[in-house]
Specification:
With about 450 residues, the protein is an alpha/beta fold. It contains 13 helices and 22 strands. Bound molecules: flavin-adenine dinucleotide.
Length: about 450
């Protein structure tokens, strides 16, 4: 009970672990990945990326997935499986804690369009992960489409693998968008250097950056051979006659990020507008549970790290330590949130995407549910909530459990409950039946390191 448990070792989780350790409380930092860093600091398979250090006091558990969080008296029981996800012999344990920090990040969002299920269509995040993690090229002629500044580092990563980037198609118009957000632009001024670097990379690689334009279809027999792009109006309706066919062998699409909410939902944390609701100390609505990073809003690595530092400090206080208020992290988080709010406005997903779909366009790839079938489940069979929609159409019932399709299906079906309607997954990760059947081994609770009673005077 007397240790801070942090789930997720991205910028938010690492900062939380560091802050809690600095307050002299024991900390366990858990991540399903083999290497520290999360998405932003993703390292290559050799770990030769940036050097990311943790204080020795942090007990770091890599290759360990948290598959469930269970409320118990005075806190939460965190259920873990350690070992490669695809291999046998994973070790199951659980840790009890009175101060749980959730920093599980986000995954990238794609929108369906005809042909998006063809081999050769990647999420932007997958293309970047392959490029950064393994140095693998997704194709020789690659086109990027979607919305958000994330398309730029992905273009850079793809170019580094030796592929040609045919074009980057941004569905919004960021130049106009930022002019309408002067205070957000000012708050993000520190990012100007990074932006200039990406634009220079695009210029050197002779990569056109097309605004208000996107991919509306991918074509090919066995895999992608070409795409149709089109110009869009401000609501993302297709401008008639603007369609163009372009030969490519890979297309990467990214329309922002979806927070990884399942553990927070299992812990019964309140969700607001699709994100975990937190106060200024990063406390959720559930006592003893804190949240930080993309889980609470999409704002980039700087905001995630600032929130993590605040959450780690609050977690240490829950265990009785008395660190001073994290003044600079609080200030950084305030300014980064202004930038994040502006980002959200400039790069928001507009409703016109729903008209890119045909009757036979798959909306749920795992269960092969077409758009027409989904509409029939809603209109003719009156599926009005997630459960009935799943049962009547099977959308969201497949292997990904709605991670890829849930948000889009909820929007298409106009389900009540907002973008998190599909986020209830009591098992947060795949677990084998044999692993479930094993008796739960609870880690013996170590005696708490003495917290200096004079902490505030030091
Ligand atoms: C695919 C992808 C690529 C991105 N690339 C960039 C980029 O190049 N530049 C940029 O500025 N921003 C990028 N972002 C945005 C980026 O996510 C954030 O800016 C930053 O990494 C957020 O930090 P975080 O700590 O909140 O989450 P993350 O960095 O996503 O870290 C979350 C961590 O939680 C772990 N985790 C999640 N669930 C569990 C569980 N159940 N059990 C155990 N561990 C778990 C994950 O393995 C992950 O390491 C990317 C986002 C995504 C999704």
């Amino acid at each position: 009970m007397n240790r801070v448990v942090v789930v997720g070792a991205g910028p938010a989780g690492m900062a939380a672990a560091r802050a809690a350790a600095a307050a002299a409380v024991p900390v366990t930092l858990i991540d399903s990945a083999a290497l520290l860093g999360g998405q932003y600091h993703r390292q290559d398979a050799t770990g030769d990326g940036e050097s990311l250090a943790l204080p020795g006091a942090v007990d770091y558990l890599p290759n360990t997935v948290v598959w469930a969080v269970e409320p118990i008296a005075g806190g939460h029981r965190v259920h873990l499986l350690t070992g490669p996800a695809d291999g046998p012999g994973r070790r199951g344990t659980s840790i009890d804690t009175a101060a749980l920090v959730l920093a599980t990040g986000a995954y990238d969002r794609t929108l369906p369009f005809p042909g998006w299920d063809l081999p050769g269509v990647y999420t932007a995040g997958a293309a970047q992960a392959l490029a950064k993690g393994q140095g693998t090229a997704v194709g020789k002629r690659v086109l990027l489409a979607g919305t958000g500044p994330f398309l730029l580092p992905v273009a850079e990563a793809v170019l580094r693998t030796g592929s040609a980037v045919v074009a980057v198609h941004e569905a919004n118009d960021p130049f106009r968008g930022w002019l309408r957000q002067p205070s957000g632009l000012l708050a993000g001024w520190g990012k100007a250097g990074e932006l200039a670097r990406y634009l220079a990379v695009l210029a050197t690689g002779k990569v056109p950056y097309r605004r208000r334009s996107t991919v509306i279809a991918a074509h090919g027999d066995e895999r992608v051979e070409s795409v149709t792009t089109a110009r869009l109006d401000r609501n993302w309706n297709i401008l008639a006659g603007s369609e163009r066919r372009i030969d490519v062998d890979a297309v990467c699409v990214g329309f922002g990020f979806t927070p990884q909410l399942e553990l927070a939902v299992s812990a019964k944390c309140a969700i607001r507008d699709g994100f975990v609701a937190v106060d200024t100390g990063q406390a959720t609505s559930v006592p003893g549970v804190l949240a930080a990073g993309e889980l609470t809003g999409i704002g980039g690595a700087v905001l995630a790290a600032a929130e993590g530092a605040v959450a780690g400090t609050t977690a240490a206080r829950i265990l009785g330590a008395r660190p001073g208020p994290p003044v600079s992290a609080l200030r950084q988080a305030r300014s980064a949130r202004r930038f994040a709010a502006a980002l959200d406005e400039v790069y928001s997903v507009k409703p016109g995407w729903q008209d890119w779909l045909h009757d036979d366009t798959l909306v749920c790839r795992c269960e092969e549910v077409g758009f027409g079938e989904l509409c029939r489940a809603v209109e003719e069979r009156e599926a009005r909530d997630v459960r009935s929609l799943k049962l009547l159409s099977r959308a969201g019932l497949g292997q990904c459990q709605g991670r890829v399709c849930g948000r889009n299906v909820a929007e298409l079906a106009r389900l009540p409950g907002g973008p998190d309607a599909f986020a209830r997954r009591p098992l947060a990760a795949p677990v084998r039946l044999g692993e479930l059947a094993e008796p739960i081994r609870t880690e013996p609770t170590e005696p708490t390191e003495p917290v200096s009673p004079n902490y505030e005077e030091k």
